[in-house]
Amino acid sequence: MKISLIGTTNRNYGGDAYENMIAEVLSKEFDVKFISTGVKIKNKFKYLEAPFILWRIFKTSRKKEFDVIIRNFTTSLCLNKKPVKNIAIIHHIDNSTQFFIIGIIRFFLEKIIFCNIKKCDIVVTISKCWENYFKQKGYKNIYRIYNAFNLDDFKFTIEEIELLKKKYNLTEKPIVYIGNCQKAKGVLESYNILKDLDVHLVTSGKPRIKISARNLELNYRDYLLLLRSSSVVVAMSKFKEGWNRTVHEAMLCKTPVIGSGTGGMRTHSQTHLSTFTKRHIRGHAKIIKKYSGNSRSQKFLLVSFFPPKIYVQLSNFKNIIMNKIKLLLNPEIKKDIKLIKETLRREGIKI
Question: Do you know which SUPFAM superfamilies this protein is assigned to (predicted)?
Answer without folding.
Answer: UDP-Glycosyltransferase/glycogen phosphorylase
